[in-house]
Amino acid sequence: MAMLVDAMDRVLAQVGQRVVRCADRGGTIAVEACSTVRAAPCPTCRSWSGQLHGRYVRPLAERPVLDRRVVLAVEMRRFWCFNATCPRRTFAEDVHALAGRHQRRTRSQDSGRLKPSKQAVTQSAEDPLLPRSTGAAVAGSVR
Predict the structure, then answer these.
(1) Phi-psi category of residue 10: left, alpha or beta, with phi > 0 → left and psi -120 to 50 → alpha
(2) Which of 39, 30, 37 is nearest to 8 (CA)?
(3) At what angle do helices 132-142 and 116-126 cross, to 10 degrees?
(4) What string of pLDDT tens digits covers the 143 residues of the chain?
């Protein structure tokens, strides 16, 4: 479990988060993370703000580890935007590298979610034993 926490902590550090608690709850591993950022830029006007408006917890599903579900509970912080010309009044800190807006899964799951036909094209195009034209021919038939 310590290796999992260390790995998650390294990933979360890239988006200004750190692991606070990790618990094994039967078939699920729950990881709680909190924010380490003191200020963030407004996504609209790019002006920095350190004035905290509030916080909320965003649940994100991560890839399974040892046949157990992994659920991240990421604390998100909202900031005030004090730029008078900006249409936004509040905004949440950016964790786009971890998960996009409105996503319920982390980006690490995006790479494994190819459709079977596209996965076959990708594998055939990368196979050094097949002629180069094979991948293109398969790709043309999948569209």
Answers:
(1) alpha
(2) 30
(3) 170
(4) 677 778 778 878 877 888 888 888 888 888 898 888 889 999 999 999 999 999 999 898 888 888 888 888 888 899 999 999 999 999 988 877 777 777 777 777 665 544 444 444 445 455 555 455 544 544 554 44
